[in-house]
Amino acid sequence: MSGAGSYDHGGASITDAWEAGAEAWIRWARTPGVDDYYEHYNLPSFLDLLPAPGRRTVDLGCGEGRVSRVLRGLGHRVVGVEPSAALVGATHEADPSTPVVRARGDAVALAAGCADLVVCFMVLQDVDVLETVCREIARLLAPDGVACTAIVHPIASSGFPDPDGEFQYVGRYLDVMRNEVPAERRGVEFTFHGAHRPIELYSRAFEAAGLVIEALREPALSEAVVERSPRLARHRLLPNFLYFRLRHAAR
Questions:
Q1: pLDDT tens digits, residue range 3-42?
Q2: How many CA within 13 A on the CB side of residue 239?
Q3: What's the pLDDT tens digit per position in 161-174?
Q4: CATH architecture of 14-246
Q5: Is 12 in contact with 20 (CB distance < 8 Å)?
Q6: Are 43 and 50 in contact (CB under 8 A)?
Q7: Helix count (H) and strand count (E) of the chain?
């Protein structure tokens, strides 16, 4: 296991892969009924972890803006941050009132301590250098602020489907590796690009940035959600997502 969380990506960064697939991602994210993982499972569970709206919420890696729009609807004063020009444009198109800074997650043109909440939803598994992004989260966060992050659960990102396609089992969990996962739903196709890292490497990156884990969640599914989307039923047994709520370490 590499302490730096690095892997051989063959010269093409995950950020570049998401830029190349930006238009396909917009279709995936905005076509009704396609991303039921997000609609019925991931987003509702994640919102339960967030504090009440405050002075400023930074949505780090906001993509095409769907989480920013939800947060604004809940009363948050949101500033989005996104490296992809196409996704920044899509965010503005959907909600021109949401300010968006085009920047990578490791170098954001916002003042230190500007946010009492940093949201990093399904982003940290999609960065090439985890430690620098975690340091930037810590820099953006006010002294008494909170950061809430969601990632693909490393149980899922390390696993391989069984022959029946019903469940996943832990594969090369301790390796750091690049993942490319093609998906198709209701005629919409998208390839997810990310990196698998064991939980310890996330914890070490937070520690190095001066952040401590205040809460950790592994959301399971209710029977009501399974009835609505039966294909999600396996996540009654194995979580697909992992959430951290972080604060600055006491000094």
A1: 455 555 455 799 999 999 999 999 999 999 999 889 999 9
A2: 16
A3: 554 555 556 778 89
A4: 3-Layer(aba) Sandwich (3.40)
A5: no
A6: no
A7: 10, 11
